[in-house]
Amino acid sequence: MKFAIALYSAAHAPSSRRALLFAQAALAGGHEIVRLFFYQDGVYSASNTIVAPQDEQDIARQWREFVSQHQLDGVVCIAAALRRGVLNSEEATRYQRSAINLDAPWALSGLGQLHDAIQAADRLICFGGP
Amino acid sequence: MSKSLLVISRQAPWSGPSAREALDIVLAGGAFDLPIGLLFMDDGVFQLAPHQNAKAVQQKDLSANLQALGLFGIDDVFACRHSLAARGLTRPTDAQPLSNDAIAQLIDRYDQVITL
């Protein structure tokens, strides 16, 4: 089955970890992930400036490694990310901000990527939310 | 044929960016001519309240964006009748009130559902 996975919560939320476990299980079960789309506070799950305490899981890092290892299409919504200060080098330059907290394997793009993923997938699975 | 998407918007317009971000999904889908429905539930029905004064809470007025739904080809706009009644909203603007049973049927009709 082809899954599109949307995440709406930050790395410290249980739902971010659940989404990661689901994504890992989907691939392990022979399924395909057409795209990960991080929206709303989900953009924080892609931040590379999170420092997790040594005895706690670093979910943002685990997401990064998972997406890199499996060469997945990991998209972070650009409007949601800008609003929350999650910037790649291009956006940090554009808006003259000193911090860069997003880089590969993540790509910043628009909501069209969510709709495109929904059309391509058999199932959209959503995690977290307000 | 395109897959249909129902967006269920459950947050009040002044409770953070969630209501706006739910609406942005709907408008983006409309821009791509996709079959999109929008259902307001729980505190989301406050987005339909008439005579809102967003400036009083230093917010941008979301109701203007709701007016744009028709321009984006989004005609399937619904509201939970129970949520409306519980919040004293008897005359919402621009949304068709639905009973709980009708909402269950509505969700069943769509291929995908996003709840925010």
CATH superfamily annotation of chain A: DsrEFH-like
Chain-averaged pLDDT of chain A: 97
**Count of structural domains of chain B:** 1
Structural Rg of chain A: 14 Å
CATH architecture field of chain A = 3-Layer(aba) Sandwich
The portion of residues assigned to helices of chain A is 25-40%
Task: Describe the structure in brief.
The complex is a heterodimer of chains A (130) and B (116). By secondary structure, chain A is of the alpha/beta class.
How would the blueprint of this fold be written?
The complex is a heterodimer of chains A (130) and B (116).
Chain A: E1 2-7, H1 14-28, E2 32-38, H2 59-69, E3 74-77, H3 78-83, H4 89-94, E4 106-109, H5 112-120, E5 123-127
Parallel strand pairs in A: 1-2, 1-5, 2-3, 3-4
Helix pairs in contact in A: 1-2
Chain B: E1 5-9, H1 18-31, E2 36-40, H2 63-67, E3 76-80, H3 81-86, E4 96-98, H4 100-109, E5 112-115
Parallel strand pairs in B: 1-2, 1-5, 2-3, 3-4
Summarize the structure in words.
The complex is a heterodimer of chains A (about 130) and B (about 120). Chain A has one domain: Hypothetical Protein Ychn, Chain: A. Helices cover about 35% and strands about 20% of the residues of chain A. Chain A has helices at about 15-30, 60-70, 80-85, 90-95, 110-120, and strands spanning about 1-5, 30-40, 75, 105-110, 125. In chain A, strand 2, helix 2 (about 60-70) and strand 3 (about 75) form a beta-alpha-beta unit. Chain A is globular and about 40 Å long. Chain B is α/β, with parallel strands linked by helices and about 120 residues long. Chain B has a single domain, classed as DsrEFH-like (Hypothetical Protein Ychn, Chain: A, 3-Layer(aba) Sandwich). Classes of the chains: A alpha/beta (about 130), B alpha/beta (about 120).
